[in-house]
Structure formats: C-alpha cells, structure tokens
Specification:
alpha/beta; 29% helix; ten-stranded mixed beta sheet; 9 helices; two-stranded antiparallel ribbon
C-alpha cells in the first residue's frame, strides 16, 4: 500500500468468474420444489439422484442459472475496468489501526466509495468484505461512524486483526445510482450489487496487506442476503456470515414477496413471477447448498420480524446433506439468538469466532 500518494493503483484484476458455462440442455431446467436437493434433472428431463460431487455440480449450475433468470446475467470480465483506486482520507484509530476512505471504479460508469481498515503488522492478513443493511448512512454504519453500535462489524473485525472493507450499496450512503435497466445493462439492483462486491474482492486481492486466499464476507439484513448472493457466484469468498439475511420465500411475510421487488432488489419477482414464491425459480435452501463446502454461518434471531426463523431452519436442513456429501458437514453452522432483527454482542461473538476458526492461521 502506497502511503505517500493519494493513489492506491490502477489495478485491473482478471480473476475468473466462477459461473460454469451451461449446455443448451441446462438452460431451461426449473425445479418446482427448492427444498428437495436430492436430485438433478438431466438433458432428457429425467430426475437423477445426486450421489456424487459431480452430480451436485450439475444441480448447482442449474441453481446459479435460475438465480440469473431473476437477477439478470452476471457480467463477464469484459465489463471490468481498472479499479483506479484512490485514498481520499486517512485516520488512525485505536492508536494503531489505519482507517482509509477510498474510492474505486467497478465499471466504466460507476465509482464506489468505501472505508478500508488496516490493522498493524507486516504479515499478510485475512480480509472481510463488510456489507451494510438498508440504511441511509450506508458504509458509515459498519465502519463505526453512524447507526447501531451492534452493526459496527467492519470496525470490530479490524480490531481483531482483519483487513476490512465496507462499501456503499447502490443508492445508499454516497452512492448515487439510477436503476434504469435500459441504461445500466443490469436487470436488477441485486446483480449490480453482486458485481460491485466482486470488484471489491478484486480490490482486496490487490492489496499487499491481504492474503488473497483468506477472504470472508458478512452482512446484516440487506448486507446478509447481499453476502449470500455474492458468495454464490464468487468462490473467492472462502467463509461467510449472514445475520438476519434470509428465510425461505414461502415464509417471508407469509409468501408476500413485494419487499424483494423494488429496483434496488429484483423487480422481475413482481413483473415476471407475480410475487408468487411457487413461481420464483430459486430459493434460499438452494443458495445455502451452493456455498458447500465453504464455511457458512447463518445467524438468525428467533424474534426476527423480517426473516422468519423457521424458514432459515428449513434452508439449513435442506442444505446439510450437500455439505455431508462434500465431506464438510461441520462447515455449515447456524446460530439462533434470542433477539429481534439485530446483531447483539453474543451473536457477534459467535460470528467473529467463526471467522477466526476458518480464516486465521
């Protein structure tokens, strides 16, 4: 990291996108029951039992394809531009942690600002991408500069020795964004956010302070499911935590999906699928399974009024056989704290220790 310059560098990371190209037979495969992960549909439309990791890889490709059916296609490397990252401000906190406000390009028309935390020490460190909830201050909340102290997790993890990066989600904080799909080329705000998150990981991997093979991601609420959507597509995320981030679509306000359909999220859930969870071609049990064998912690308070806890338990139960198939049963964890839609100290302790276990050497 260059300290005497306001420019971090014109980084242009070309890390491969992990979505596997699909065959013609794969592209239209829709599964009516998203909790049943025991089979895949072959090119002739027949159900085949999932018995091996190769069998699961077929179903996983179908899951990622169906997510893109709703979210829009994930861009390829052709959409990347140099990050052109610059340091805007630099402050020392807690005596020895450096907090930098930075900005960088995620595509030709988008420049994102974020807070970057650098703990002391010369050795390369694990890093965590920290995604904020639905809140006007955006990145300032996880950075510890605004909002709920329980959600200052970018600061907290930096205090535990992680490099952390907290960017704005489109339309929050300082990130002004026009969601007009014809202008942006993104069919959903969700996919735009996934793309921005992947460029944030490019940025983290470009930093000499970061071990690029030890990158995690976490978030609360909007940040919780944003973490999950990004990790499904980007396997550079080696460990992830979602707090108050999801439930099965059928258990989201009794199956009323309007909350998922604003331009910030996935308008096609309304425009194409009529807010009907029976018609949406993917669901969270499949997304959780798609992380396997990577470590995933679902932090799901039992009194969360947004994301009903039994739908989280359903999702974990559905995904567990896939983790077992991949010999990673212990990597799928859930914590059910006795709280509302929040991230209290005891729940944070479980999450931070989860990262320590899987990202620290």
């Amino acid at each position: 990291m260059i300290l005497h310059s306001k420019t971090i560098g014109a980084f242009f990371c070309l890390s491969a996108i992990v979505v596997v190209p699909l065959s013609a037979d794969d592209k239209t495969v829709v599964y009516p029951e998203h909790q049943d992960l025991s089979y895949y549909v072959d090119g002739q439309g027949a159900k085949q039992a999932i018995r091996t990791p190769a069998d699961w890889a077929i179903r996983r490709r179908h899951i990622l394809r169906n997510m893109q059916t709703v979210m829009g296609p994930l861009p390829g490397d052709e959409r990347k531009v140099p990050l052109n990252a610059k340091i805007l401000e630099e402050t020392k906190i807690d005596g020895n942690i450096v907090r930098r406000k930075i900005e960088y390009d995620t595509e030709k028309t988008t420049r994102v600002s974020a807070f970057l935390f650098l703990p002391p020490g010369a050795a390369q460190k694990p890093a965590v991408l920290c995604l904020h909830q639905t809140t006007r201050p955006g990145k300032r909340e996880p950075a510890g500069l605004a909002g709920n102290p329980n959600l200052h997790y970018a600061l907290h993890l930096a205090q535990r020795g992680y490099v952390t990066l907290a960017p704005d989600y489109p339309s929050f904080g300082e990130y002004q964004y026009d969601f007009d799909r014809a202008k942006t080329g993104f069919r959903s705000g969700t996919m735009k956010a996934v793309w921005d998150d992947m460029r944030a990981i490019d940025l983290l991997q470009s930093l000499p302070e970061v071990d690029g093979e030890r990158i995690g991601c976490m978030g609360h609420s909007l940040g919780g499911h944003n973490t999950m959507f990004t990790a499904a597509f980007d396997e550079r995320i080696k460990c992830l935590v979602s707090n108050c981030g999801f439930t099965r679509f059928h258990k989201y306000y009794g199956g009323r999906l309007k909350g998922w359909t604003s331009p910030r999220y996935m308008p096609d859930i309304n425009d194409v699928y009529g807010n009907d969870p029976d018609k949406v071609p993917f669901d969270f049990p499949e997304i959780v399974a798609a992380f396997a064998p990577r470590p995933f912690l679902a932090s799901a308070p039992v009194r969360d009024g947004n994301f009903e806890v039994s739908g989280v338990k359903d999702s974990i139960a559905a995904a567990r056989p896939i983790y077992q198939l991949l010999n990673a049963a212990d990597n799928l964890q859930a914590n059910y704290p006795d709280s509302a839609h929040d991230f209290p100290a005891a729940a944070r302790a479980v999450a931070y220790e989860f990262f320590d276990r899987h990202l620290k050497r």
